[in-house]
Fold these 2 entries.
Entry 1:
Amino acid sequence: MSTVSKPVASRAPLMDRADERLQDRSGIAGSVRGFIDRVRSGDLGSLPVVVGLVVIAAIFQSINPIFLSPNNLVNLLFDCSTIGVIALGIVCILMVGEIDLSVGSVSGFASALTGVLWVNHGWPVAGAILGALLVGALIGSIYAFLYNRFGMPSFVSTLAGLLAVLGLQLYILGSTGSINLPYDTALVNFGQILIMPGWVSSALVVVAGVVLLLTKMRNAARRRAAGLSARSTGAIVFQAAVITILLGLVVFYLNQARGVPWMFGLFVGLVLLMNYAFTRTRWGRILTAVGGNREAARRAGINVRMVYASAFVLCSTLAAAGGVLAAARLASSSQQAGTGDVNLNAIAAAVIGGTSLFGGRGSAYSALLGIIVIQAIASGLTLLDLSSSLRYMITGGVLAVAVIVDSLARRSRVSHGRA
Amino acid sequence: MANAFDGGIVGRGEAVLSLRNVSKNFGAVQALTDIELDVYKGEVVALVGDNGAGKSTLVKILAGVHQPSSGTMTFDGVPVVLDGPSAALKLGIATVFQDLALCENLDVVANIYLGQELSPMALDEVSMEIRAWTLLRELSARIPSVREPIASLSGGQRQTVAIARSLLLDPKVILLDEPTAALGVAQTAEVLNLIERVRDRGLGVVMISHNMEDVRAVADRVVVLRLGKNNGVFTPDTSNQELVSAITGASDNSVSRRASRRAGTEHSAGEAHP
């Protein structure tokens, strides 16, 4: 009957590691294994888009070696920024499971309004931009009102908005049809030539790496102090180092040509800001909750209408911001601004980047990754001197593949209990 | 008048929550008619009735999800109008809904703190996670990780999360709609223990259940609803037969005939149930 005293665990189990069914996922190897498990269960994150980007780059580079030249990439980043900002708004509205089909028209209207107020009416440029943004916010609040008050499906209200706002754009531009913005002004320079000096972009990469490292370390320290499991310091340093080195290589490569455009810097800044808002604020949390289960969010005491309103307003405001950037990029406000494929490119970018059309699942980074994919295709096809007909067909095909991946991943998540 | 609905229990002090003549109709359907309900501090009221008796509708009215078509509600002696779930939460009425009302795409911590997140501009995930673990421990929950989305949890685990969430705000009244329906043996016992613990802390508990064993185990009073109307108030030691007949309507006017029936049962108890 002599019972051998069992070896007591050397330290008290961490509060969130007490369950014996949990597998150990600490350290670098654990992180990798966790990542593989997530992907296998359909929680793909940004993996498909990264794979897609590599494939696209490989194809175009093999056909035309100019494609990956630093100069072409710098132009690509300029082009990304305008629609990318619009796509960021689309991510917002997709998070609550709604859609805004009028972002193209709103951006075109904002672009026209900037030109009219600034050039025709002699407003200061900041006032004109602010006016365009406010009008964007107003349009979004109209959609929110229609949705909250009358239960009008956003699909219909924004489709109506697409036509009505396009009409407004044509109306305020009048018979001339287009306004040229003066060159050598801050706005147009910003859209066309302003580039970060090499040391600024390099410094920003270092700052990003340090901030990433410090916040992760602080977070891990807090968790450890509170008796929760935390990622090992090695894993954090490894991750921060990899990200910093990758970003550093990209920036170094771009600096071989002109460098990183300030406009792209603004876009990335907005993406980081929205990412913080989505993941680290109450607003982002309840936005995700409403997208996942509207009634549950309502019963938790959340003002669901305000959440929808914020999403609609933010989406339209960002669309207007994209329109202002487009005006700066083209140095003109024209009837063509915001028409054609702007609308669908913005929506496609968000979806290709991995934001679900079904609501409650998405990330600010999907706007960034998605728009790079779309612009890469556009740029590659332009380099091949292919007509826009082919460009539309190929972009449409990529969108279809992205939605198929989303649907399949969703089915897989359901069967793995991670929907 | 009110005494008829106290089920003979008097002297408990003021009712923390009481309904008078509350009716609710959905279009032509009269879901609730002239409901009277009192919940006292430190008691468990079981709400029983057949399917479609209006139990869940009543709970949703108490939770502010539905607004009554007519009638009055008082909370702590003050007349209140619950114009939304947040009004009920603010008063101190917490609810565990039958469908649990969890967001499947969020993890356990986010669900427990949904709408009550700490430090809104920079979420305090560490404190929230610790409190979530503490609440789940109190319920002896078997949840391996609070950082998994709700979608990956079983029905019983989800139930525990929903109950843990209701306790987050230290409410005065807790409404539980079928709290033990999806639970295993151990968790059912834990939930019943918890209900008693909550009651002993002076909270009012309203529990809907189809399980007469659970009702008998913890309830201080059993309120029967039938077809959207009050159909009597019973003590937990009432015989099963009597409860069932009140629930199913085998006796039409149970309130008025209760006393005589009770006397009859006591007399014939020996012969009828050997």
Entry 2:
Amino acid sequence: MRVVPVHLFPGERTSRAGPSWSADLCGRIFRPLGSPAVSASFQLRAKPTEYTEARRRLNAVLHLCESCSSMSAPRSRRAGRVLVALWFLVTLSVQQTEAKNSEDIRCKCICPPYKDIEGQIYNQNVSLKDCNCLHVVEPMPVEGKDVEAYCLRCECKYEERSSGTIKVTIIIYLSVLGLLLLYMVYLTLLEPMLKRRLFGHSQLIQSEDDVGDQQPFANAHDVLSRSRSRPNMLNKVEHAQQRWRRQVQEQRKSVFDRHVVLS
Amino acid sequence: MESEQLFNRGYCRNSYNSITSASSDEELLDGAGVIMDFHTTEDDNLLDGDASPGSNYAMSNGGGGAGGVSSSTHLLDLLEEPIPGVGTYDDFHTIDWVREKCKDRERHRKINSKKKESAWEFTKSLYDAWSGWLVVTLTGLASGALAGVIDIAADWMNDLKEGVCLSAMWFNHEQCCWGSNETTFAERDKCPQWKTWAELILGQAEGPGSYIMNYFMYTYWALSFAFLAVCLVKVFAPYACGSGIPEIKTILSGFIIRGYLGKWTLVIKTITLVLAVASGLSLGKEGPLVHVACCCGNIFSYLFPKYSKNEAKKREVLSAASAAGVSVAFGAPIGGVLFSLEEVSYYFPLKTLWRSFFAALVAAFVLRSINPFGNSRLVLFYVEYHTPWYLFELVPFILLGVFGGLWGAFFIRANIAWCRRRKSTRFGKYPVLEVITVAAITAIVAFPNPYTRQNTSELIKELFTDCGPLESSQLCQYRSQMNGSQAYPAGTDTATPGVYSAMWQLSLALIFKIIMTIFTFGLKVPSGLFIPSMAIGAIAGRIVGIAVEQLAYYHHDWFLFKEWCEVGADCITPGLYAMVGAAACLGGVTRMTVSLVVIVFELTGGLEYIVPLMAAVMTSKWVGDAFGREGIYEAHIRLNGYPFLDAKEEFTHTTLAREVMRPRRSDPPLAVLTQDDLTLAELQAVISQTSYNGFPVIVSKESQRLVGFALRRDITIAIENARRKQEGIVLNSRVYFTQHAPTLPADSPRPLKLRSILDMSPFTVTDHTPMEIVVDIFRKLGLRQCLVTHNGRLLGIITKKDILRHMAQMANQDPESIMFN
């Protein structure tokens, strides 16, 4: 079972040729979340340099801040792996202990109206071999010779469930949903506010202009730079996040604005 | 995004033609500056030869001379170090199946030849051989698990609209009352643990106040689920909306949509699918499950170099994944395999069939072991019938088929018209508002009617289930009276108000579903079409079934019923009618036949109902086809203008290749590259001045004889790579595609060899090839482009787009409006 989380989402090693490099970069975001962020912000506080330099740094830090303060996207992915693995484990263990858990089995007998007795539903925790009308229907509403006739009309069904799986599934689902919602709120509300406060309005416009990169050789740059290894963690984080952003923006444009796909 | 315009405009001017036809063969061949080994006689054959691959192959050797023979058996020159990124594709481009398959065979040969060298290489070859089965196993596991999560979460969230389980928050209504002994025969889902919102907030379960409270809470939850779903889709993964099957069909036919099967799409689609289903919108989770399974297949294929680096091989995995998706959606493994074969797959060799079979098996197994519904079945609406059907019932079954076909045709027309409106007018600018409006209308109208209030899957289950003495639903109330009437003298049966009111409610539900489904399919949330279509068919079928049953009951002395129906005995099974109606409606919308019958048959587990199902599905397909040949998925593909060359359509026009090829007579000449007399600056100028995606390489401008084909993306990558890695590449460097460098003056800069990116065996046809044949070649081989020659000279190019444009033109449609540009 331990193999599952490791291989569920492949790392950047295999990311080059495939069609889903969009999603891949978010995989790269979370790995270097440790010390570089902290040291960068320390540096920033320690030596205030001239404006452009500070601005460049700030930009970088902001991107980092974004990934550390609201780690829900990366964390949801990491959490995704862990949770999926956990879910598998729990499911397996639940399956094994299921037999012992008497809450999770039932034998339900539905008995239709008979003579002047109303229809009834009987429900008991009994094993499969005892799941018949004689064991489950208690108290028997009819007397002696009518029991057989009554029981012939009843239908008894043995059912199993695993309440553990249901519980874990719902909890995992809700936590992933919650993290995504938090990250969404951050991305749509908090981040623009933060950016505006730090840089004013011009930065926003500029960064949006960067998106359209239409030169014929830009693509080649992109492909080749992807294949090289990037030494600087900070750059990597920034780069990866920006690429993800750009891709989602591109998707949004083609789906919602231009209506070229999925309409 | 760039359009996929592979065509190169330009036309061989008459002067060129006259020059080349006048010049001798020696002159033609000598353009390369290398000594040619061809004899003139052979060359004549070559020049007059047809478009068979053999001649291309020989032609491509021409540039390299005799020394190039051994290396040119490879598609790409493998002697050199491969450039990273070459052979990949841009977003929204079409793959070249032939090239990809050749690449795979080449790779396979390499591994096989190394196998004997060491134990490590042998292990690697074993891993490679097994990777196909491994990846489908993983895909099956993941899609089964995700389907389980979606089923459980959607059930729970759906019941959250009504109330909550106080003893254990995570249980849905049914699970909440699982062990309760307080349930009664008439009200089976009432138990003290389950509290409706009115009970929780107002403290009373009955009365107008609590009804309004429940109504309000129902609408509130429906709206908030829909809002969350559309927001998540919009912020994180816009590609997660819709059903996904049209796009997957297009992707499997060889189109590339980056990010469509990525991780974010998977996560968001899984999460929002639950929200969308729970919001009560008229949509289902079956279609999106296919998309989810395909995302799993794509993600797992990254673990195996065999699949991650080859787009054609990856599509084999995706075919298997879509089978796994349907397998878990309907609990029908065989139906899933057939669905993949009949509906979504483009290239489906036997090996893929077996892998699909295996993936479907694994997925169904995982879902069964999760047991999401607690009924030991894979779907909620699994039913079992044992009653026989009679021959005269074929008439109502066929009538249901007619209804299904009519509904399908109407739905496709109406939905496409609405989607076109959304696509082309300002109205499409407000996706969030649209979703919320539709969700609000759905919730407000749906709540008063018990048949629309409940989950659509549950509605289908109730409609499929046959009435018996054990059933207590409103639909079966007449049954108990009729059963009771057995004891009394016949003829005293009274009108049964329960059934009549149920009929009214069902009719209203039918109208409501029909209208809402048209507006729902295409919203920017994950939305499938199977369940609403089936619900509409099931409602109609149940109504017809009850009508026939009543007819047989009141007129049991008719000659039709006399033979089969005895007084008081049940001879009509309304549940079966519901099932036949569901199959017919689904068939009318999707135009599936075999896979649909198998899916429905796997739902019922009764072999004896195959004939009614086949009759209804076939009728609905005929009726539907009479109004328009394409199913909903093809219609959406066409609406979006995806480059999808349907293998089912026939091409019957008598046009020739030269009429379709680019450049046209009035266009500028074809943009070509010569094999060894371009400088880097000239090459870059050609690339930046045009937007074509590939360039034919010819011997020289004078001879116009074809050497090969180079893709724009590969050229740009190779140039960029050479700039970085090789010394002395400047703008004046000569670029050559031949085996040996051309003889250059001593002071010239170092030349750049681009032979490794040249496809030396491009497909060619002559200009007089009928388009029927060209279209067939494109369909069967999955080509991306094809060069047109005349007497061995390059004349023009035909791309997949050109063919689609031409087909649209022939069908009297506007060719430009439907293309993906």
